Structure formats: structure tokens, C-alpha cells
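Data's thin. Show one?
=====
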Amino acid sequence: MITVVLNGYKRPEVLQEQVNAIRNQTIPPTEIMLWQNATEGFDTNLTGQLTTAVSNKNFGVWSRFAFALNAKTEYIAVFDDDTIPGPMWFENCLNTMKTHEGLLGSIGLICDTPNSYRPHTRYGWAEPNEKVVKVDIVGHAWFFKREWLGAFWRELPPTGVSLVGEDMHFSYAIQKYLGLGTYVPPHPKHVPEMWGSLKGWELGVGPQAISYNENSITMMNDYFNILRWRGFELVKFGKLHPNG
């Protein structure tokens, strides 16, 4: 039913904990795939248990969504390497899909201005939400139907964009071509077992984090504005050109 795609990059020491959390889901995955992205230091005994592809070049954050095309299941769950899901995360996502079919994530953003990625209001593990929330963009963990990758790759990223933007691109693509929204499943404050990430404040704020790199933030804003001009509709502001 579910194929997991992990991104092995700068946190090889976290992989075992991540795999354990995924294997211990109330609805366990069919397969765990690892995209090992130009980084050494991984436990080969562990990676040998997974379907692993090793790259000697850093192809950035988009590459794992190309690797995901090898999945054979109805659903795919992609995780950043700083994301440890609670044991009910997949169950939570599948239940959410029944009422809010769309791209799901462990943290979601609603943009507070019409022309910039920041500032934004967050939902999910960083700001727990009791009910499903429709957002503009999700990150850290993505849950979706395999067939939606056709929409993801229908428009290619601009040349030179490899390290950022795949999250907003996915939301834009399924909105434009499939008429689907982006949502954060419930993250009840006192039920962390349902959360998509249990250690975001511990693992997601280090020097490895793209969102804490000023150059990356600039690139995010640049690509955000490209998508706005292409027709990306925001929860608060709609389209940039309402009649376009």
C-alpha cells in the first residue's frame, strides 16, 4: 500500500532511528527505499536491508521524487532526513485522505503575503492543529498517491534549481493539473503518536537545514514568485492574476 522514500544526506546517524519509526507504524510500509545522496558514513548493514540507490553526486532535493517513480504501491511517503514520524502517522494520513484528498505533510505553511514565501503561518508538528488544515505548502514529510508524480514532473524546474523548491512545486502542480489541495493532517497537541515529525525542533534546526540558510531562502522566494506567475493559487490571496 505504501512505499517510503528516504533521503540519505547529512544525517547518517539518524537513519536507524528513522527506519525503526517507519517499520513500527500501525500501518507498516510495503517497501523502504533510500536515495543516498553523495554522502558517506552510512551503515552498510542497514542500507543493505533497504532498496538503496547510491549517487556520487549531490542532485539536490528534487532527485528523491524522481527515485520515487520506482515505487509500485498506491501511496508514497517521502521523508527529509531530519523527520522521525510518530507510530500513527501513516494511519493518520490514510484517514485524512478519505475526507481531504490531496498532498499531505507534517508541517504546512499559509503565506501571509501574496508575493513572498515568508512570512507565513505554520501548522503541524511546529504548531499543532486539532483538525485538518488546508495550506499552501507542506514539507519535511510528504504523503501522496503515486500517480500524482505525473503532475509533479509535467513541468520541469528551471535550470539550476536543485536544492530548493520541490515542496512548493508539488503543491502547485497538483493544484494546476489535478485540481487538488495541500493539507496538514491533524496534529493534536497531546497525541504526538499521530504527528509526522517527533524531533523537528531537535533535528530540523541545525546547520544542515536548508530553511536556515539565507542563500536557500533567497532561492525559495525566487522560485515561489515564478510559480505565482505561472498561476499558483494561495489560500489567503488566490491567484496573482485573478483573470489569468
User: Anything to note?
Assistant: The helical segments are 15-23, 44-47, 63-67, 89-99, 149-152, 166-178, 200-203, 214-230. The mean pLDDT is 91. The beta strands are 2-8, 31-37, 51-55, 75-79, 102-111, 120-124, 133-135, 137-145, 181-184. The longest helix spans residues 214-230.
